[in-house]
């Protein structure tokens, strides 16, 4: 990619000239982790009619005086290779985990570590939602954090937040962390 | 100084964004790529790829232009952020530029373009054929309107039946009152009632018959209202279905089976189709069942002579053939709500047809761009196909065959995916 190309696109970017601060957030995780449910819950939409995402969804949420553009990309194995295409210019990564799906903890850990190594996500803060806490079989967030070796992340801000996208519990806490973090970072 | 600059820079940029050098490639791109953009909430992965391509195109165009005119990025930015550029009249010019950075905006532009093309295609079909084939009017987009119409019909029917009931009741009252005195009245009344009933049926055409069926609690009629407003007599004749079946078979075998499809597209002169609508619609219901064997046996043997015959035949029979085709395609529309395999197939056919029309439009546009006509591209494609729809040259026949082939291919692709 040439320099000039980047330059012109960034010029166009400035043309929008909205007064609001815009934040690009990418929402990833394995299939059936609850990404779209979380997205809809963030946008205060109905979460009862969600089907597996074949492509991607975008919602813009206003929060703390910022405009959060959240990109939710399907998590099925065949779609995961496409994740890379959505990481450019990302301000924050939200990674969603099905806390009750113990069999796939390893798989989800692998996917996350691959993302962390992505050039486009270098230094990008990551929020991990330990979703589905409403299920009795859900593992606690602290346990998942250990399993994912989160404490070894030294190059970025991270946070793990227990939540239930269906009930909405914990979601707002996560969003608060995001907003505080983005504000700190952009200042 | 920058202020002074921006004035002419912005004017020049706006001029460029309105010039063919910009408009043609950008419009071309959109028209070529917009088919996959639908109005679904969820985005397809392919949108991103297309957006990337679009970014590259716009970048290349703008870069070339800026080089040519000799302005740098800073001047460009200054100009575009100046208050002058923010005026509403100019905002629309900048939309395609801003869409490079704003996926949502890009998406909505593409969805809109897709819709425009579809409407255009429908218009062309309409102008060529005089009316839309039923399969193209039964979509979701006209659903609400149809439902409204259905409701209206239902209301009218309820009103009518109430009137009839009231009348009957009053008559009965009358009858009871002078039951002993007049023997004549007694025998007259049923007849009168019958006549009255007949009058209503004929007066209200299919509406009242739909209604009657509904009134009697025939649930299967519930979707027939969708067709009623679109094709005359379709529902009205539903009740006669059983009687007409032998006739239908005769006609069908006499008809040039496999050629229907081609001639449907070709032969329909815009004037006649409604002529035998009534009789055809009676038959149409049976088409799906009867047609299949005829189609498979005939086309290979008799396709070319039939084509010739048909192209020279009267427009009336052409219209008839066309209607048969249209109705055949629409045969599924009655139980439209329950999707069966055949219906899905029909829908795919419909999609292929639309796509085919779109491709044709594009081809036309390209030709016209070559000839450097200055009128707007939207207006152009329509006159061309309507110019001589009845006159079937061999070339046109070829084209149609090609298109059909293309449509089949497209269908295949769609199914594979």
Automatic annotation (TrEMBL), chain A:
Q: What topology in the membrane does the UniProt record assign?
A: Peripheral membrane protein
> Superkingdom of the source?
Eukaryota
Q: InterPro entries under this entry?
A: ARL2/3 (IPR044612), P-loop_NTPase (IPR027417), Small_GTP-bd (IPR005225), Small_GTPase_ARF/SAR (IPR006689)
Keywords of this entry: Golgi apparatus, GTP-binding, Lipoprotein, Magnesium, Metal-binding, Myristate, Nucleotide-binding, Protein transport, Transport
SUPFAM superfamilies tied to this protein: P-loop containing nucleoside triphosphate hydrolases
Positions bound to GTP: 29-36, 75, 131-134
Q: Which locations, inside or outside the cell, does it occupy?
A: Cytoplasm, Cytoskeleton, Microtubule organizing center, Centrosome; Golgi apparatus membrane
**Can you tell me which residues the record assigns to a coiled coil?**
none
List the GO molecular function terms: GTP binding; GTPase activity; metal ion binding
Pfam families hit by this protein: Arf (PF00025)
Residues annotated for Mg(2+) binding in this entry: 36, 53
Is Magnesium set as a keyword in this record? yes
Q: Name one GO biological process term.
A: protein transport
Gene Ontology cellular component list = centrosome; Golgi membrane
Q: Which family does it belong to?
A: Belongs to the small GTPase superfamily. Arf family.
Among PANTHER family, the record links this protein to: ADP-RIBOSYLATION FACTOR-LIKE PROTEIN 2-RELATED (PTHR45697)
Query: What is this protein's record name?
Result: ADP-ribosylation factor-like protein 3
| Originating species | Mastacembelus armatus (zig-zag eel)
UniProtKB/TrEMBL annotation, chain B:
Record key words, sorted: Cell projection, Cilium, Coiled coil, Cytoplasm
Q: Which GO terms describe its cellular component?
A: axoneme; ciliary base
Q: Which residues cross the membrane?
A: none
InterPro entries in the record, alphabetically? BART_dom, BART_sf, CFAP36
The annotated regions of Basic and acidic residues compositional bias extend over: 356-370, 407-417
Q: Where is the composition biased (Low complexity)?
A: 293-320, 343-355
Q: Which protein family is named in the record? A: Belongs to the CFAP36 family.
Q: What name is this protein filed under?
A: Cilia- and flagella-associated protein 36
């Amino acid at each position: 990619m040439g320099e000039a190309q980047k330059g012109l696109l960034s010029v166009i970017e400035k043309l929008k000239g909205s007064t609001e601060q815009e934040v690009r957030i990418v929402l990833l995780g394995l299939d059936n982790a609850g990404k779209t449910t979380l997205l809809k819950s963030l946008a205060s939409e109905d979460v009862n009619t969600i089907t597996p995402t074949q492509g991607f969804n975008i919602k813009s949420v206003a929060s703390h005086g910022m405009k959060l553009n959240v990109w939710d990309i399907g998590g099925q194995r065949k779609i995961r290779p496409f994740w890379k295409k959505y990481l450019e210019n990302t301000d924050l990564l939200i990674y969603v985990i099905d806390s009750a799906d113990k069999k796939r903890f390893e798989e989800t850990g692998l996917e996350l570590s691959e993302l962390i190594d992505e050039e486009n996500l270098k230094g990008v803060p990551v929020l991990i939602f330990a979703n589905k806490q409403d299920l009795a079989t859900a593992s606690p967030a602290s346990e998942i954090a250990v399993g994912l070796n989160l404490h070894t992340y030294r190059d970025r801000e991270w946070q793990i937040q227990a939540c239930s996208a269906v009930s909405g519990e914990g979601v707002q806490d996560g969003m608060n962390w995001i907003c505080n973090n983005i504000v700190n970072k952009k200042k | 100084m920058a202020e002074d600059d921006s004035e002419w820079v912005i004017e020049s940029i706006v001029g460029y964004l309105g010039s063919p050098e910009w408009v043609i490639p950008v419009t071309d791109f959109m028209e070529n790529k917009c088919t996959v953009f639908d109005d679904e909430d969820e985005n397809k992965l392919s949108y991103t790829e297309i957006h990337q391509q679009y970014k590259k195109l716009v970048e290349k165009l703008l870069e070339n232009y800026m080089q040519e005119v000799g302005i740098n990025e800073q001047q460009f930015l200054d100009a575009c952020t100046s208050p002058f550029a923010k005026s509403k009249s100019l905002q629309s010019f900048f939309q395609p530029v801003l869409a490079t950075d704003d996926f949502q905006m890009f998406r909505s532009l593409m969805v809109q373009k897709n819709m425009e093309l579809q409407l255009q295609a429908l218009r062309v079909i309409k102008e060529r054929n005089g009316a839309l084939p039923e399969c193209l009017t039964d979509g979701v987009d006209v659903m609400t309107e149809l439902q409204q119409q259905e409701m209206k019909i239902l209301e009218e029917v309820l009103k009518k039946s109430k009137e009839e009931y009231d009348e009957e009741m009053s008559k009965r009252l009358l009858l009871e009152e002078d039951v002993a005195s007049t023997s004549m009245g007694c025998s007259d009344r049923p007849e009168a009632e019958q006549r009255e009933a007949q009058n209503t049926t004929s007066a209200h055409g299919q509406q009242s018959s739909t209604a009657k069926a509904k009134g009697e609690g025939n649930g299967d009629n519930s979707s027939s209202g969708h067709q009623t407003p679109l094709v005359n007599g379709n529902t009205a004749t539903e009740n006669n279905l059983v009687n007409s079946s032998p006739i239908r078979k005769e006609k069908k075998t006499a008809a040039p089976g496999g050629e229907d499809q081609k001639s449907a597209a070709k032969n329909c002169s815009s004037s006649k189709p409604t002529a035998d609508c009534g009789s055809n619609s009676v038959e149409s219901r049976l088409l799906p069942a009867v047609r299949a064997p005829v189609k498979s046996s005939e086309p290979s043997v008799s396709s070319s002579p039939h084509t010739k015959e048909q192209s020279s035949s009267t427009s009336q029979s052409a219209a008839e053939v066309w209607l048969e085709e249209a109705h055949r395609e629409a045969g599924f529309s009655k139980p439209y709500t329950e999707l069966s395999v055949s219906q899905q197939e029909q829908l795919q056919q419909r999609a292929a047809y639309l796509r085919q029309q779109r491709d044709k439009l594009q081809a036309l546009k390209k030709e016209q761009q070559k000839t450097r006509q200055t009128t707007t591209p939207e207006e152009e494609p329509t006159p061309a196909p309507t110019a001589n729809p009845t006159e079937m040259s061999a070339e046109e026949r070829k084209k149609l065959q090609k298109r059909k082939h293309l449509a089949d291919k497209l269908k295949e692709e769609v199914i594979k995916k």
